[in-house]
Specification:
There is one protein chain. This protein folds into two domains: 126 residues, Sandwich (Jelly Rolls), CATH 2.60.120; 96 residues, Jelly Rolls (Sandwich). Helices cover 45% and strands 21% of the residues. The strands form three sheets. A four-stranded antiparallel sheet has the order 2-6-4-5. Helix 6 packs across helix 9 and helix 7 crosses helix 8. It starts with a helix and ends in a 14-residue tail after the last helix.
């Protein structure tokens, strides 16, 4: 059930059989939510954290204008709000983009897990640091990259994050975002998103059709997006 999560961890560090069993034991239950459902609301007191098992979620901030900004996408294997364990509330919402299934980890069980297994404390600290690195990279995109580069970078990031949990076929993956939601990730209007997608198609870099992204020229897309995966820390080091 948490295999995708374990794959994510084991790309970055060794997880023992005892630690794996401890993670499984800390889980309370599995819940399901339909698409477009708030899962964690801004400011709500938190007593549990959630691990996404299936589907896509997003961190969102609602604006007074009625618009929203998506500040990170979450995929299967992601601990969506692990930082809520220490913060006890979030400064943003977490929304289900698709139908989702997730595991619930009460904070008292997480506390016991981390106190008993200090190595897992370091591993999960690493994972929250990687979330912060992703946020920084998105900030660079929003602030400095032109729309085609911004979009290319996001498509490359999604590919690499889905690849390590076995959610890709070659350089292709399921892509459930609407053009509006893609625009909310990139700070672009739907019209600008459409024009940018057409530009990438004309350059024969990608195809987006029937809820799927097919990357036709990965090297070219990476060059356009100035994409390097170092901020995702796909490496093992002593922790």
């Amino acid at each position: 059930m948490i295999e995708a999560h374990l794959k994510k961890l084991r790309v970055r560090d060794d997880i023992s059989g005892e630690e794996e069993e401890a993670i499984r034991s800390a889980m309370l239950e599995v819940r399901e939510v339909p698409a477009d459902t708030p899962v964690v609301r801004h400011g709500r007191d938190l007593h549990e954290s959630i691990l996404l098992l299936d589907g896509w979620m997003a961190r969102t901030t609602a604006m007074a204008s009625g618009h929203q900004q998506i500040s990170e996408l979450q995929f299967c294997g992601d601990f969506v709000d692990l930082h809520g364990f220490t913060l006890k509330r979030l400064d943003h919402n977490v929304m289900a983009i698709t139908d989702c299934r997730y595991a619930v980890f009460p904070h008292d069980r997480l506390r016991h897990l981390l106190e008993k297994h200090p190595h897992l404390t370091r591993v999960y600290w690493l994972m929250t640091n990687i979330d912060a690195a992703i946020h920084r990279e998105w900030t660079v995109s929003l602030g400095r990259r032109p729309a085609p580069s911004r979009m290319a970078h996001l498509f490359c990031e999604i590919l690499e994050r889905l690849r390590i949990v076995g959610q890709t076929t070659g350089d292709s993956y399921q892509f459930p975002l609407t053009q509006q939601e893609l625009g909310d990730c990139l700070g672009l209007t739907s019209v600008h998103v459409n024009r940018t997608l057409q530009s990438l198609r004309r350059q024969k870099l990608i195809e987006v059709a029937k809820g799927r992204v097919n990357i036709l020229d990965l090297a070219g897309l990476q060059a356009l997006g100035e994409f390097e995966d170092d901020y995702l820390y796909f490496e093992k080091r002593a922790r």
